[in-house]
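hiii, so i know i said id send this last week but things got crazy w the move. better late than never?? heres the sequnce for the chain we talked about at the cafe, plus the structure i predicted for it. fair warning i was half asleep when i ran it
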Amino acid sequence: MQPVDDGTEFTEGKMVVFPAWPCNWDVSFKLWGPLNTSVEVVYAGGALVNMTVTPASRAAAVTFANCVSA
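okay and structure toks below
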């Protein structure tokens, strides 16, 4: 997970979850970010199955970057 450099203050900024595994893997994980944000991801069959952001008020600030095969 990485903050987006969008020219705003970090407290107002967004975050992107970048896949760091082979695209054909099925994974599930939980990450903790700034502003008490947690992100739970389930990725299976080459696609994002579920992404839960807590607190819900931070959901618009988190984006998932699609997996790209090399």
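btw The mean pLDDT is 87. thought thatd interest u
miss u guys!!
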